Amino acid sequence: MNVFNVIPIGFFNPLASGSNNKIYADCLQVIYGEYDREITFKMDRERLRDAVAAYLIDNHIESIADIQETSYSDIASQILRKLSSPEIGWLEEEIDGATYGRNIIMTEQGLMLADLLNRLEKPEKSEFSSYIYNIYNTLSNTSQWEEDIYVDVLLNVYKNAKGLSKDLKTLATFIKKIIERMIHEETFESLTENLLDYFNGDFIKEYSRLTKRQSIRTFRRIILQKLSELRREEIIERLIDGCRAEEKMTREGAEDRVEELISNTIRFLDSDYDRIMSDIKHKINVYLQVAVGRARFIRNKEENIRGDIEETIRIISEEMKNGDIRDEIPDEMRGLFTFTDNLFIDLSSISYPRRSQNIKENSLQEEVVITDEDIERTRAEFEKEIEDAYAKDKMAVFMKNITGITGCASAEDFPMEEKSELLRTLSAVSYAEENGFSIEPLEGYIETDKMLLRRFKVKRK
Q: Percentage of residues in the chain with pLDDT exceeding 90?
């Protein structure tokens, strides 16, 4: 479909005028904002006229090139009439059958144009982590699977994954523009404040929150597992039937569509997500290095007093070459003005050698006799240091103490308060099979020492 068969031929004309395009764009946004408090995009014409007139008054717009009226109210009426004309089509004007008053309706194309202008001036920020949470909640809430599993689950999950992919790729593409705001700062103080905002996690808040929340990684693993479960025979049949009904497809087309949605979602969350995040991190590091270089340049430009003095001397020297100043001064003073013959070394490039400390006087120390007992005690201390606290045999004893007489225990029975206790538990579980115990994974996780551990059950074989 040709877009110009849908919109009027002069739809973009108000924005093409170099002198009035900002006025018409602002008026459209003013009108769009007035509908925020309404239940439909339909409003009394006089209210919109007053809102546009208020905009004209606030911005001291007393005339518009293609409008002959002079009062603010009349200019506003002409603007509404022009935007409601069939040639423009941003608005539509109708007569209310009950009150015979005039109403202004915003057209579908006018709404999309106003929304585009708003997003261009104030781009919306996406909360990246919310996409992951939405996908996780959808797949975990099995009650949503009952009615229409294709629309409520698979299609919903795919749209969230696609939205996260689009927003992250947009950030990766345009992150240069975000960091250029820092690079173009004129003062060292303002640039430093922006850099500090980044290092405090406020530079790109949505990206920062996504990378700092460790639970995102846990959710991803569970999401990938549940997506794989959608390929089970009894579930895939329901998905295919739902796709055929929703998309009006044949069975073969529905099978391909369902597999495509599942495969694309798994591929993005399993591999593409990590590659995009790595690319974003790389670009941030590169542009921050440029920003730090900019900070150094601004600092040197503002505080380079020695450079200013050298530049002044250079100018004086050039003027002396062009004139006869050298002929007018005594010979004994000419050495003061031989600026171009001297070479200067920056003090910051000079490395001063370290002075070796001289021994001022000899010192004597009494002879120390090492006994056999001292040697044995030292050997015992060394053996204690190199002793493996998590050896296989020690872990067998530890596991027997935990399981006790019953010969079984759960993850909650193991001490994991301290870091050493956590390491001992992990070592005991690692040697469990070799020491005669079996490990059975359970549902859920235990959080300890900023880590998430899968719940488990231990049994003596």
A: 8
